[in-house]
């Protein structure tokens, strides 16, 4: 984030604190409770936002060295991503060209050759078929035509993007919209991967996104945890195309008032949370970054999973390795054990059929934007609003 923007965000938060205000959407949003439970809607979303939409699958630190690989299978395509000797990130369908078995089953590791567990056809990390056992018995095949199916892939500002369709269009600057320049400044590429977690929850995937979209709940739901560190119901909020950035207000902002602006760093007094359409949250702490990827379980409206990846600033890891490595546990105790428990309860409320709509307050603009945006992407009527 450019320094002038950091100052603007901190000033916005201080101003809200001084006036007792918060960001204001101007209206109340009214969302149909069936948006979270409707199987037809879930089927549409699965295709439009997952099977056929560009995906962030991780950060550069997930492929730290030539020979690293990761796999994923969350959006309808088994995926194998590699970094080859040339340093390039590539993505392939993780599907053997003999009889379709998933080629690599480990979630991550170091390997330059992938041997199929079924009959041992072997591929290198450029996707080429380099070995067919008993080739004289199998019969002649044109190895050059039987490489792994390569998918559009781009590594930009430390994020790994993939299109799940081989002929899909991947325009990452377009997807980042106004955040393209801002992401350049965070130096995500230097982050070190320190852990992963998965939260499987009986709730619609959009409820997981919603929980990252406001701080109105901090003083109740997180009274003994986040509310000790953050001022609840105070945030700075900015929209970048289909994406947005929220800056949560950290209580240590008070100490910044006596510092010259030239020494301000936004993460001293704010906690930026970026939402990237359709399913990504990037949480930026002083020393650690948490990437959250939210997926429905196929087209099931009632189940979702969140893949959470943790990254550390190398200098923080060197100074406080134990503290940095404790972040996944602390994150789970808040997001999994507090937010997602409440969100799963909302899902049961939606499922009850007794409440026909939920409300998004004027102080929850991220929820307005997210629901309005995804509805627009599906060609649905706009989010209903009521004057407040
Ligand atoms: S399915 Fe992979 S070698 Fe046969
Ligand atoms: Fe929360």
Describe the structure.
This protein is 30% helix and 31% strand. The chain is of the alpha+beta class. It folds into 2 domains: 3-52 and 177-387, Naphthalene 1,2-dioxygenase Alpha Subunit, Chain A, domain 1; 55-169, Rieske Iron-sulfur Protein, CATH 2.102.10. The chain has a 7-stranded antiparallel sheet with strand order 13-19-18-17-16-15-14, sandwiched between helices. A hairpin with a 4-residue loop joins strand 8 (122-124) and strand 9. Helix 6 (205-211) packs across helix 12 (327-352). The longest helix has 26 residues, at 327-352. The model has no long low-confidence stretch (mean pLDDT 96). It binds FE2/S2 (inorganic) cluster and fe (ii) ion. FE2/S2 (inorganic) cluster (FES) binds at residues 96, 98-99, 101, 116, 118-121. Residues 96, 98-99, 101, 116, 118-121 line the site of FE2/S2 (inorganic) cluster (FES).
Distance separating the two termini = 33 Å
Kindly report the spatial arrangement of strands forming the biggest sheet. Answer: 13-19-18-17-16-15-14
Q: Helices and strands: which structural class?
A: alpha+beta
* Total beta-strand segments: 21
| Beta-strand residue fraction | 25-35%
Work out the helicity level. Answer: 25-40%
Figure out the total of helices. Answer: 13
Largest sheet: 7 strands, antiparallel
Radius of gyration: 22 Å
Low-confidence sequence ranges: none
CATH fold assignment of the largest domain: Naphthalene 1,2-dioxygenase Alpha Subunit, Chain A, domain 1
């Amino acid at each position: 984030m450019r320094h002038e923007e950091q100052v603007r965000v901190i000033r916005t938060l201080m101003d809200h604190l001084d006036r007792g205000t918060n960001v204001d959407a101007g209206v109340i949003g009214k969302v149909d409770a069936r948006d979270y439970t409707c199987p037809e809607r879930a089927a549409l979303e699965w295709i439009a936002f997952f099977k056929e939409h560009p995906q962030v699958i991780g950060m550069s630190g997930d492929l730290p060295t030539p020979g690293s690989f990761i796999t994923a299978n969350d959006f309808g395509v088994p995926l194998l991503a590699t970094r080859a000797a040339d340093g390039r990130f590539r993505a392939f369908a993780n599907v053997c060209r003999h009889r379709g078995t998933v080629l690599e089953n480990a979630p991550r590791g170091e390997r330059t050759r992938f041997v199929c567990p079924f009959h041992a056809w072997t591929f290198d990390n450029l996707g080429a078929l380099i070995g067919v056992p008993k080739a004289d018995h199998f019969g002649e095949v044109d190895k050059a035509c039987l490489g792994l199916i390569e998918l559009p892939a781009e590594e930009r500002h430390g994020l790994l993007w993939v299109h799940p369709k081989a002929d899909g269009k991947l325009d990452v600057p377009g997807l980042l919209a106004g955040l393209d320049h801002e992401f350049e400044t965070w130096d995500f590429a230097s982050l070190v991967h320190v852990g992963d977690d998965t939260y499987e929850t009986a709730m619609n995937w959009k409820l997981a996104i919603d929980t990252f979209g406001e701080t109105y709940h901090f003083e109740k739901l997180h009274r003994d945890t986040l509310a000790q560190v953050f001022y609840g119901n105070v945030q700075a909020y900015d929209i970048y195309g289909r994406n947005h950035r929220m800056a949560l207000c950290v209580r240590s902002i008070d100490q910044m008032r006596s510092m010259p602006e030239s020494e301000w760093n936004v993460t001293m007094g704010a906690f930026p949370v970026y939402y990237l359409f359709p399913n990504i949250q990037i949480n930026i702490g002083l020393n650690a970054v948490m990437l959250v990827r939210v997926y429905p379980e196929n087209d099931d409206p009632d189940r979702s999973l969140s893949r959470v990846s943790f990254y550390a600033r190398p200098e923080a890891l060197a100074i406080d390795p134990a503290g940095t490595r404790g972040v996944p546990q602390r994150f789970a105790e808040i997001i999994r054990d507090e937010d997602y428990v409440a969100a799963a309860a909302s899902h049961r409320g939606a499922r009850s059929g007794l409440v026909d709509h939920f409300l998004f307050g004027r102080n929850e603009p991220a929820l307005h934007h997210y629901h309005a945006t995804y509805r627009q992407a599906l060609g649905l009527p706009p989010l209903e609003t009521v004057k407040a």
